[in-house]
């Protein structure tokens, strides 16, 4: 009987491994087919990413719907997360999860309470260091949304800084060829991905809906705090008011941004040298001195000319 049980267990795990292998092969084949279909039908990969982002946002909203019950409390308890600051963070991050200020504030309180209950459960079960988690778990739940949204803001603005010079060169070339600015933006953004495309797609949609061009530019400024991007939009506003050619504006801004990037790289390189010196001074040099001193002591005690041989 024991042998049959052992054979059944082995057969079960063998079947499970075979099932996982075939499922993985199915996923790989599905990915290849989807990629082939997208190439044949010329589906824009950006649209697929947007659909995936919208599905992820819908799923997140279903999971965090209980946070709405704490939104009023969160709007009042807003340490390190004033309501106007949260609104600015959501705008500058692109708000990929479609959060509102009230839900964000409620999510913060919800995670605070959840962290407290998880810490209490860990303390009851007897996990090691659970008493420390009881103190830091609620704080972690409270500050986690703030840290993540700030990280998303920084990541998005860095992506804009990285793609902006190439975007400006392409638009400048199109405008110099006689294409209007609106048409050049619509065509050029199809070859870019990420926040640059999101921002100028929204800009084009606002222009199509009849929003004044200067107001659409101001909205771009409000949604982004990247210095290079703000410099570009302000130059476009000034060029629109003064009649400066758009192609010249884009070309000058592109050259200035590349020069600024070179200066930033040099600045980072200059800041790296003191850090390397600090590590060398306080870590590598003491260890090297200890190794040399240890070898000298061992040679004095255990070498051919050991001081112990004198006795």
Automatic annotation (TrEMBL):
Pfam families: T2SSF. The keyword Membrane applies. It is a multi-pass membrane protein. The chain crosses the membrane at residues 6-24, 107-126, 132-149, 276-302. InterPro entries: T2SS_GspF_dom. The keyword Ion transport does not apply. This is Tight adherence protein C. It comes from Oceanobacillus limi. The lineage of its organism: Bacteria, Bacillati, Bacillota, Bacilli, Bacillales.
